[in-house]
Design goal:
This protein is mainly β. The protein has one domain (about 15-150): Pnp Oxidase, Chain A (Roll), CATH 2.30.110. About 10% of the residues lie in helices and about 45% in strands. It is built from two helices and ten strands, in the order ββββββααββββ. The protein has helices spanning about 75-80, 85-90, and strands at about 15-20, 20-25, 30, 35-40, 50-60, 65-70, 95-105, 110-125, 140-145, 150. The longest helix has 7 residues, at about 75-80. The chain is extended, with a radius of gyration of 20 Å.
Length: about 150
């Protein structure tokens, strides 16, 4: 008989983000990893005890990645391929890319992965620069997508 045990959950501050197999980097925060289904209520004549609840479309909010400022412009450059001269050079077509978010254990091994489908960058925010501030310089990337799958 197998012994039952509880696996300690991984520390959520250790994860990486990849696009098309290339590691973009580690982030201090990712939000928006959720899905919601629309629910339509249908009242049936003569049935006063309840209403039928029909499931509808899935809603995938944008993912928001935050990290300390680094010496690479990879996030900003990816955004530029979807707008301005980058978009014009690509024939006014944005190429969606598949990505992965992996939570890592203490040994740096992947504990859990979500595959992001058809990701496109929609917003980049640079750090707030103020000489009087002691805040960390944080950059933020917002990504829209067509959903995600749990696992590889």
């Amino acid at each position: 008989m197998a012994k039952a045990y509880t696996v300690d959950p991984p520390f959520v501050g250790k994860f990486k983000f990849e696009i098309d197999g290339t590691t973009i980097g580690a982030f201090t925060e990712v939000s928006g990893l959720s899905v919601q289904l629309d629910v339509e209520e249908l009242a049936e004549g003569g049935q006063n005890g309840y209403t039928h609840k029909l499931l509808g479309r899935m809603k995938w909010p944008n993912l928001v990645f935050k990290r300390g400022l680094t010496d690479t412009d990879a996030l900003f450059e990816w955004l530029m391929t979807a707008s301005g001269e980058g978009l014009t050079a690509a024939g006014n077509r944005v190429k969606p890319r598949n990505g992965r978010i992996s939570v890592l254990n203490a040994a740096g091994e992947s504990m859990r992965t979500w595959s992001i489908l058809e990701a496109k960058p929609v917003k980049w925010t640079g750090p707030r620069l103020a000489a009087s501030s002691r805040d960390l310089a944080i950059e933020e990337l917002e990504v829209c997508h067509s959903g995600f799958r749990s696992g590889t």
